Amino acid sequence: MSANEAHTAASLVLGMNPVWPATLILIATYALLLTEKIHRTIVALLGSSIMITLGIVSQKEAFAGIDFNTISLLTGMMIIVAITRKTGVFEFVAIWSAKKVKANPTGILLVLSFVTAIFSAFLDNLTTVLLIVPVALLITEKLDVSPYPFLVSQIIASNIGGTATLIGDPPNILIGSASGLTFTDFLVNLGPVAGIILLMSVVIFYFLWRKQLKTMPELQQKIMMFKESDTITDKTLLAQCLSVLLLVIAGFIIGEHYNIRPGTTAIMGASVLLLITSMGSSEKVQSRRLHDVFSEVEWSALFFFMGLFIIVHGVEKTGLLELLANKLLSATGGSLSVASYATLWISAIVSAVIDNIPFVATMIPMIDSMSAGLGGPDAIVPVWWSLALGACLGGNGSLLGAAANVMVAGLGDRAGHPIHFVQFLKIGLPVMLLTIIVANVYLSFRFF
Amino acid sequence: MDCKTVMHKVKTSLYADEPAYRAIDFMIDNHMRAVPVVDRDGVFVGLLSTERLMHFLLPVPVSMMRGTKCVSYIRETPKELHRRLAEMGTHSVGGLVDPYAHVAYPDTGLIDVMIHLSEKQHVVPVVERNNNKLLGVITFYTIIEMLKESVK
To answer: Per-residue pLDDT averaged across A407-420, rounded?
Structure first.
């Protein structure tokens, strides 16, 4: 459908230029996401359905607007993680690390921050905090220390770790898929700055909480008595999962040279893991296992992405995002550095307030539109890094900044240790501002 | 068949304001795995089961929703279990029950209760539709008793 046809269809319904209903849908979607009164997947699916029903995009166009590379990458990694988590390897690493620092509470706080950041770089943040936070809570219970520093540090570490790679955080997946930037590109360009920011944050954690994290030697001894090897119940499955995970990461790096997109690599890895873990089982057992694994896939998140892609595609089609991009371009005076810094700070501030996924999905076509005015696709690469850094690190700005933050707060609440919005803001916001300043300095030294 | 023709009356009630230890003794003495709990007016407030009590004996990060289940590395001492048992004892029975337990009404078909008994609960309380007063309960044994009686 051409823009004119879209105009005609929308005019038939509302008698107005399609840019208005599309803008209304986008604003309503953002508003509903911000209030969190209705589940985000329902909001995205409703918005996308209205977009199609009003004829702003045809169904065919809407489906073509869905980024199936992102959907495949998310699905593949969810399947791999669903199988791998059953091996107990994540708990093993957490307990092993705690024992390596002789169960010293401050040491555990720091080492678990590193563990969470590293896991978050290669798994999604939600999964990471779901696996590590209950273990951290258990350790704090045994050591009789406040779990609050552990909960806050887990949030911050997961958001920083997720910044480092293409697969670490959904905004990076979206950016990588849209821009064509590879796994290696992300690791080389964002890995070092994420590492610096993590180290800096860990130093802050140390000075902030070292005095209140005191325990008794006999309680430390309890942790030292933990037999972490007992968490690994199926060594064969562990070997299979780790092999596939390593091959998938290698596939992300090598595949880029052969035009194999990350989505294909992730689905291939998930299929191979499903195959090798099913071999030798009866059809009934295979069916049950498959059902178990698929029940752990976050279908609501996948449908949220699909709905969002359609909404953004519809808005993009009306020319609104191009219009906004031109305005942004003229505001920056066509300067690449100003555009990068503006993207970094705007992304960070917006991501601290609302879910960074819809924001990044909206920003991508805008940055694409600015490309010509800023010197072409190769020249705007620093703007993509600014968007990734701002969106991921901005998540630390408030308790609502990222899904992982809300998850950790929920876990803390259920364990009887709620984190309050303002309480988190007092640490999260300064850390976020500090990390964005570091990111800004990094961008200026690295690219300008 | 509907529930009012099958249910059996509860002989001794467990009240929501009683201490938790009374519930444990009550369940041990009567060899019961699940007991309906009522307030002093006889209104059903929730179901207390041994599974539910066992939750309180586990560390919170394990028993909570989305808690860690991969904890084979822990070797706890009786002292630690005693501490959690003592903590559980500080609650009233009403604080331990599952308030969202499935209930049936006198005119509910037995088949619906049988499905619940086969999948979720050991006991299905039968309550008055308009005021939630406990009228009786249905368990697997209730149904078997009823079947034996019907043969006679």
So the answer is: 91
Residue A376 or A384, more confident:
A384
How far apart (Å, rounded) are the C-alpha atoms in residues B53 and B59?
A: 12
Residue B60 and residue A243: Cα distance in Å, rounded? Answer: 34
CB of A292 within 8 Å of any CB in chain B? no
Instruction: Check CB contact of A200 with chain B, cutoff 8 Å.
Output: no
Long-range contacts of A222-225 (CB under 8 A, 24+ apart): A222/A103, A222/A142, A222/A143, A223/A95, A223/A98, A223/A99, A223/A103, A223/A108, A223/A139, A223/A142, A223/A143, A224/A99, A224/A102, A224/A103, A225/B75
As a whole number of angstroms, the longest Cα–Cα distance in chain A is 76
d(CA A190, CA A159): 13
pLDDT at A15: 66
Report the distance separating Cα A288 and Cα A389, nearest Å: 41
Q: Cα A168 to the chain's mean position, in Å?
A: 6
Report helix, strand or coil for A145.
coil
pLDDT of residue B42: 94
Mean of pLDDT values over A11-17: 62
Per-residue confidence (pLDDT) for residue A167, from 0 to 100: 92
A233 in contact with chain B, both atoms CB, cutoff 8 A: yes
Q: What is the pTM of this model?
A: 0.87
Enclosing H/E stretch for A444: helix A421-447
Q: Using the Cα atoms of residue A9, residue A15, residue A19 and residue A20 in order, give the sign of their dihedral.
A: negative
Task: Output the CA–CA distances (angstroms, integers) from residue A302 to A26, A74, A296, A387, in the order listed.
Answer: 19, 8, 12, 22
Cβ distance A232 to A92 under 8 Å?
yes
- Residue A9: what pLDDT? 52
Write the residue in A134, A228, A416 that is nearest to B67 by C-beta: A134
* Three-class SS state of B73: coil
Per 3-state DSSP, what percentage of chain B is helix, strand, and coil (rounded to 5)?
Answer: 40, 20, 35
Alpha helices of A15-147 — where are they, by DSSP H? 19-35, 40-53, 59-65, 68-84, 89-100, 105-122, 125-143
pLDDT band for position A402 (50/70/90)? Answer: confident
From B63's Cα to the closest Cα of chain A, the distance in A is: 9
**What confidence score (pLDDT) does residue A157 get?**
97
Residue of chain A nearest B62, judged by CA positions:
A134
The CA-to-CA distance between both ends of chain A, in Å, stands at 41
Mean pLDDT of A254-273: 94
Nearest CA-CA partner of A383 in A374, A395, A392, A372: A374
**Are residues A389 and A344 in contact, defined by beta-carbon separation less than 8 angstroms?**
yes
> Which residues lie across from B137 on neighbouring strands?
B8, B125
**Are A231 and B70 inside 8 Å of each other by CB?**
yes
Q: How confident is the model at residue A356 (pLDDT cuts 50, 70, 90)?
A: confident
Query: Do A187 and A204 form a contact (C-beta atoms < 8 A)?
Result: no
pLDDT beneath 70: ranges in chain B: none
